[in-house]
Design brief:
This protein is α/β, with parallel strands linked by helices. It is built from eight helices and seven strands, in the order E-H-E-H-E-H-E-H-E-H-H-E-H-H-E. The longest helix has 29 residues.
């Protein structure tokens, strides 16, 4: 049986590269990123096509759309994963990002998802088949707890931009799920809680106290939920924010 095509933005990042490897076992993955070095690593994976692409630039998205159309490639799934996250460190202390930073981060996280949906989501609507997954965060429904950052990273403050992006992405999810509902296209959001990535022990200790399961997530904890949202038999779930966070947001 021929494998379906999935487009993944931000494919070269921490979670993006994991998603690429996992999805390539079941789909043909069209991996997009602006990091050429990361794309080179992904090229070695079977069933993966890589493209250097800036999701903020509509002309680049349009060119990819037309290229895939010329190759008669039908895209079944779109995963909007591209974002700029502020990783905890000892240097970032500004609770008010400058406007340049604001524009850059919102362009990648929100405008990029909008533009990808404009082209590939609309094509799915016309084909009356497909699924769109926006990658959110537990910060799509809660605010960051700045106390856990303070104890581990001093004066670091999780910036407002990330919360705005993830809350806004859920609004976009609901909007397009309603718009495409009668066309056989499901639009949902997968929102991971904190996923372990060599965090400081102090941070782990403080965060785990807030999580009912008493541990940070692992990358593999996301696979089954991602596959559920991509399952073509799962065709009556749309507009949902699937939060995979060990129960943190329920308290």
């Amino acid at each position: 049986m021929n494998k379906k095509y999935i487009i993944l933005t931000g494919a070269g990042g921490f979670l993006g590269s994991f998603y690429t490897k996992e999805l390539s076992k079941f789909f043909k993955v069209i991996a997009l990123d602006v990091n050429k070095k990361s794309l080179q690593k992904l090229k070695k994976i079977k069933n993966v096509m890589t493209f250097y692409l800036d999701v903020c630039k509509e002309n680049e998205i349009k060119n990819l759309f037309n290229y895939l159309k010329s190759k008669k490639i039908v895209v079944y799934g779109l995963i909007n994963n591209a974002t700029i996250d502020s990783v905890p460190n000892l240097k970032s202390k500004n609770k008010y990002p400058n406007l340049e930073t604001w524009d850059i981060e919102l362009n990648v996280g929100l405008k990029g998802a909008y533009l990808m949906t404009k082209y590939f989501g609309e094509k799915m609507r016309k084909n009356k088949k497909g699924t769109i997954i926006n990658i959110g965060s537990d910060l799509s429904v809660i605010a960051p707890n700045q106390k856990i950052y303070k104890k581990a990273y001093g004066k670091f403050i999780k910036p407002v931009t990330y919360s705005v992006i993830k809350h806004g992405l859920y609004g976009m999810t609901k909007y397009f799920s309603s718009l495409y509902a009668e066309s056989g296209v499901n639009v949902n959001m997968l929102s991971p809680g904190s996923i372990y990535n060599n965090h400081k022990k102090t941070f782990l200790y403080e965060l785990n106290k807030l999580i009912p399961m008493k541990r940070m997530g692992k990358k593999k904890d996301l696979t089954s939920s991602l596959m559920l949202l991509l399952d073509e038999n799962n065709n009556y779930m749309t507009g949902q924010n699937i939060i995979v966070d060990g129960g943190r947001t329920i308290i």
